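fyi for ur records
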Amino acid sequence: MISVVPPFPFVSRGAVTMSNHRIERVSELVKREVSEIVQELNLTGCGFLTITAAEISPDLKEGRIYLSVIGSADQKRRALEALDRQHGHIQNELGHRIVLKYTPRLKFILDETEARATHIEQLLNELEGEDPDE
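which gave:
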């Protein structure tokens, strides 16, 4: 299943926003800290889980954490369920580790980029193997 996640909408003029460079730095910091927090959790049976990216909204109130799971579809499902169950702990721990005006409310999203790239590569290889006269 492919789900398209739109980028964060722009906030109104009245809201305080940060520069793009600062948002990128905060996103990278959140990614690094969430990755460390997830490593500390006991996520057995969830495959090999990697935090691939973090995207924080300009007002710092919301964040998307993209993760890649190497394993079966069942392991991917279990990984997302485990992170949803541990959401409060991850959120609380993140608030202790980084000092921001707001601790972003995190949402975990499965990053299927690698799987899509592999699928496209397979399709291209199949096309290469076809006879052009057909």
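The chain has four helices and three strands. thats all i got for now
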